[in-house]
Amino acid sequence: MKKLLTENIRIFQEIKPFIKNYERQLIILSINKLLQLPIGIAMLFLFKELIDEVMNRKQLDILRWICIGYILLFFLQTLFLSYQKIVGTKMYNKLIFDIRLKIWNSCIRMPQDSWKSFDKGDLKNRIDSDVNSFSIFLEQQIFENAFAWISIFTYGFILLIICWKLALFSFGIIPMFFLLGNWIAARQKEASEDYRNIWGEYEGWMFNCFQAWKEVKNLSIEKVQTKKFVRYWRKLIKLFYRQCMYMYASMSFDNFKDIFINKISIYFLGGILIYTNELTIGQLLIFTKFYEQMFNNCSTVSNLYIQLGTNLPAMERVLEIMKYNTRYQGIKLDQNNFSSSIEFRNVGFTYSEGQPEILKNINLKIEANERIAIIGKSGSGKSTILKLLLGLHKPQQGEILINGYPIEEINYSSLHRIIGVVMQDNMVFNLTIKDNLLLANPYATDAEIKDACKTAYIDKFITALPNGYLTLIGENGVKLSGGQKQRLGIARALLTNPNVIVFDEATSALDHISEQEITMAIDNIAKKKIIIVIAHRLSSILSADQVIVIDNGTIAGYGHHSELLGKNSAYDVLFKDQYKNIAF
User: Fold this and answer.
1) Which part of the chain is the ABC transporter domain (predicted)?
2) Could you give the CA distance from residue 519 to residue 426 in angstroms, rounded to a whole number?
C-alpha cells in the first residue's frame, strides 16, 4: 500500500501543471463531497430513532419529524450528488482534453530518433485510450480515496461510541481484507501491463499489414500474416483470461466479506450483547449500518488501489510521451528578410554510437537564390544531409548555419516555414485537390492556390477535371499519375511560401515526360528561392549552378556540371551509363 500511495503522489505531481487551471473547481468539488458525509450520518441516526423510539417505544408523534428529516436530507443529498456529477464531468473532460492535446503535440514534435523507437499503433492507443486513465485517477484516486479515508475514521469513531467491544472485534477483521486486496492489485497490474504491451504490438502490426496489403498479396504471404494474427490473438486471449480470473477473485472476496463478516459475525456477537443488555436493537442495527458504511469505504480504498494497479501502466505510457518538449523555442527567422545562406561547417554525423560515420567533415555553403544539386549513389549520405538541414537529427561534429544562426538555436516551426520539401513519394489523402493543398496553409485564398498550381504546372490539368479543384483524388492519390502527385506536392510546398525548397529524388520514379514537367516547374521556382535538388539522374541536375558529389559520406566533388564532367572520377562513375543519351 505504501508503494501505491507513493505512486499516487508521484503521478499527481506529474499532472499538477494541468490541474492548476482547475483549482477553483477542485476546491468546490472537495467541499461539496465533504458535505455529503454528515448528511449520510444524519440519515443513519434518523433510522436509529425510527427503530428505538417509534417501533419499540411506540412514540408515533416523532414519526412525522423523522419523515420530514428524511425528505430534507434526501433532497440535499440529491442536490450535492447532481452538482458533483455535472461540474465534475465537465471539468474532467476539459482536463483530459488538455492532457490529450499535450500528448498529441509531444508526438508530432518529438525528435525523429525518438519517433522511430515507438510503434505507431501503440502511440495511437496511448492518445485514444490510455489518456482516459488520468480522468479515472483524478476522480477516484484523489477525490474518492481521500473521501473514503475520512469516512473510515469518522465511522470508526462513531462505532466506538456506540459499542466499543463490537467495534474492536469488527476492526480486527479489516487487515485481512487489505492484505488480500493488495495481493490481487499486484497480480492484476502485472496482467494488465502485459495485455496492453501485446495489444500495442498487435495494433501496430495490423496497421502495417493493411497498409502493405498489395505487398502481402504480391509476395503470397497471406498464410504467414494469418499465422501472426492467430498468434497475437492467442496471446491476448490468454492474458485477458488472467485479467478475468483476478477480477473474479476480487468479486468472490467481496461476497465473502459481505455475507460472512458483515451479516453473520456482527449479528451473532451483537445478539449476545443485546441479550446481556449492553446493546439495544436500534443500536445494533445502526452499528451494522455504520460498520457497513465503514467497510464499504474500506472496500472502496482497496478497489481503488487495485484500480490504480490496473491503470498505472496506461498512465506510465502517457507520462513517457509527456516528457518530450512540445514548445518550439529559439530564434524565429523572418521569411521576408531571409536573404543570406545555408552553411555546413565541418559536419560529421552517425546514427548511433559505435557505428561508422555517415557524414565526415562536410563543408558547403549555399548562397541566396542559388540552385544546388546534391548527388551520390544510394547510401552515400545525401539524404542524411537533408535530414540534418531539416533539424530531424543533430550533427555530432561541426555546425549548420541558417541565415547566420546555428540550426539548434532556431525555432523548429520557423525552420520549417523557411524550408519546404518535395519528397519522392508525397503523402496525399483521400480528400479533394483543394483540401490536400490547404493542409500546407489552411488560410490560403483561392487565388493563392491557383497561382501555386500554375507555378507547379498542374493548374491546366486540374481545371480540365469535371469537378476541378473539388475533385476527390482517392486513397494515396490513386486517381493521379506519379507526375501529377509530384506537381501537387510542389504546389502544396509553394503555399507556405518557403525561402528554400528541397527536392528529394522528386523525379527518380517518373517517366521522361513527367520529369520534364517537374523540371519546368523547378525552373519556374528557381528565380526567387534557394533550390536544393537531391538526385541521382543526370538530367535532373544539368540546370544546377553547383553540383555537390557525395561519396562515402564525404564531398568528392564541387562545381558546375561542365567543370566536373570528365574531371571528377566519382562524378563520371556515377553517370557513365547516362552520358551517351544526353547532349551537352
Assistant:
1) 342-577
2) 17
Domains belonging to the chain, first-starting first, are 2-322 (1.20.1560.10), 344-410+545-577 (3.40.50.300), 425-499+508-526 (3.40.50.300)
Cα 534 to Cα 383: distance, rounded to the nearest angstrom: 7
Confidence label for 584 from pLDDT (cuts 50, 70 and 90): very low
Residue 37, all three cell numbers: 458525509
Residue 230 binned pLDDT confidence (cut-offs 50, 70, 90): very high
Query: In angstroms, what is the C-alpha Rg of the chain?
Result: 35
pLDDT (0 to 100) of residue 338 = 65
Give me 338's grid cell. 531571409
Contacts of 389-395 with C-beta under 8 Å, sequence gap 24+, read 389/342, 389/419, 389/502, 389/532, 390/415, 390/416, 390/419, 390/421, 390/502, 391/415, 391/416, 392/111, 392/112, 393/111, 393/112, 393/113, 393/349, 393/351, 395/347, 395/348, 395/349, 395/359
- β 554-559/546-551 pair status: antiparallel
Render pLDDT for 128-175 as a digit per residue (tens, 0 to 9). 888 888 878 877 777 788 888 888 899 889 888 888 888 888 787 777
Match 464499504 to its residue by C-alpha cell: 296
Element (H, E) at 406: strand 405-406
> What backbone torsions phi and psi does residue 572 show, to the nearest 5 degrees?
-65, -40
- H or E segment and range at residue 347: strand 342-349
Q: Are 564 and 556 in contact (CB under 8 A)?
A: no
Separation between Cα atoms, residue 478 and residue 472, nearest integer Å:
10
pLDDT, tens digit, 9 for 90 and up, residues 387-399? 888 888 888 888 8
Inter-CA distances, 306 with 178, 192, 265, Å: 11, 11, 26
Would you state the cell numbers that stand for residue 174, as one nine-digit string? 479489516
